[in-house]
Write a structure and sequence with these properties.
eight-stranded mixed beta barrel, 10 strands, two-stranded antiparallel sheet, 22% strand, alpha+beta, globular
């Protein structure tokens, strides 16, 4: 009986395809496992250290907050009557300085850490190695959010965790139909920020990534530049007297960074400013 000779080229192609498929499957399994583990770590933190309290218990009166007094900031899937157990967080990690929430972003519920290096770029808030990293404060900033420009960094994950949701704000329709409020909780209380600009920039941008401002003509130019460069129409202005919060993550097209700028509209820092006038 005549036997067929194996074509070595076909055999090589099959072997390469099998190996590629094997590594691709391993890659997918790794990211699925890592993503689930990361979500568990931060879900557990939110469940353990975030307490939703009644308005009377938190010392807040009904009927509104912020500058408008309309009560609109009380809408959303998360309550804004929240207490963070910082003492409990500090027992795990003294590098925790704040907690971030957004009312209309289901996964935006994280501790915020600070250290004078990029330690948390690939570590969870507990210091465990993870490609998801943490939400962390720019090392040149004061970690108490008293600077006139504070920058927070987070990875842009494909499962929309960490700062993976930011790209949605480049869509005008998304901005128009979602809350534009960011809550930052610190041991001193809650700070409420309103998004006024969304833009793509380069990581080497000498303007966006500058901190250390005080109210001055240079800071006014800095803030107005953010307003003018916004790639969505927010209808929100900002001035030299505002304290600015920037959320920064990676961009996958065009320029290499995607940033959201927000201004402080309510919180104890504003009260302190008023007291010193």
């Amino acid at each position: 009986m005549e036997t067929k000779k194996r074509n070595p080229l076909v055999a090589a192609i099959r072997t390469i395809a099998f190996v590629a498929l094997f590594f691709a499957a391993g890659y997918v399994i790794f990211w699925v496992f890592t993503g689930r583990n990361n979500k568990r770590v931060y879900d557990e933190a939110a469940a353990q250290y975030v307490k939703i309290v009644a308005a009377e218990e938190s010392g807040e009166a009904g009927g509104g907050e912020g500058q408008s007094g309309s009560g609109e900031l009380k809408l959303g899937v998360k309550s804004n009557n929240v207490e963070i157990d910082f003492e409990g967080l500090w027992e795990v990690n003294r590098d925790v300085y704040a907690w971030i929430q957004m009312p209309d972003i289901y996964c935006m519920d994280y501790p915020v850490v600070w250290r004078t290096d990029e330690y948390y770029l690939e570590r969870t808030w507990k210091g465990v190695s993870s490609p998801y990293g943490s939400i962390f404060i720019e090392e040149s900033n004061n970690p108490d959010f008293t600077d006139y420009h504070t920058i927070l960094y987070g990875h842009r994950m494909v499962d929309r965790t960490m700062f993976g949701w930011i790209e949605e704000y480049l869509k005008q329709s998304y901005y128009d139909t979602h809350k534009d409020i960011i809550y930052i909780y610190t041991p001193e209380g809650r700070l409420t920020y309103q998004i006024f600009s969304v833009e793509e920039v380069n990581h080497s941008d000498p303007i966006v990534y500058t901190v250390g401002f005080c109210p001055s003509p240079q800071f006014e130019e800095f803030v107005q530049g953010m307003v003018e460069r916004s790639q969505v129409e927010t209808g929100v202005s900002a001035t030299v007297n505002d304290r600015i919060l920037t959320l920064s993550t990676c961009a996958f097209h065009g320029k290499d960074r995607l940033v959201v700028h927000a201004k402080l509209i309510d919180g104890y820092l504003l009260n302190e400013d008023a007291a010193t006038e």
